[in-house]
Specification:
It contains five helices and three strands, in the order ααβααββα. It is of the alpha+beta class and about 100 residues long. It has a three-stranded antiparallel β-sheet with strand order 1-3-2. Helix 1 (about 1-10) packs antiparallel against helix 4.
Length: about 100
């Protein structure tokens, strides 16, 4: 899970995940939204893949990325459990 939190710590990677939440995208489509170099962006993709937050699929000459939502949900659930937070804002902490 440490890899997931490390991946989520970077704002560029969080933006990539936000974009992939809308739809699967190619590396080129994602790159259009950033001013960083392609090698830097490739490094972000590698960190996200290592954390299993995204999946990649080679399609012809390009690579398509998709969000692995189950890992993100697990990370959020573990974080909420660690801080004893409720997913329902109506529920009160009984302290």
């Amino acid at each position: 899970m440490n890899q997931v939190y490390r991946a989520l710590a970077d704002p560029t990677r969080r933006e990539i995940l936000r974009m992939l939440r809308e739809r699967d995208m190619s590396a080129g489509e994602i790159a259009e939204h950033f001013t960083v170099s392609k090698p830097t962006l490739s490094g972000h993709f590698a960190v996200l893949r290592e954390a299993d937050l995204i999946r990649s699929e080679k399609r012809g000459a390009s690579i398509s990325y998709s969000l692995n939502l189950s890992v993100l949900e697990d990370a959020m659930r573990m974080l909420m459990d660690a801080f004893k937070l409720s997913p329902d804002p109506k529920e009160k902490d009984s302290r």
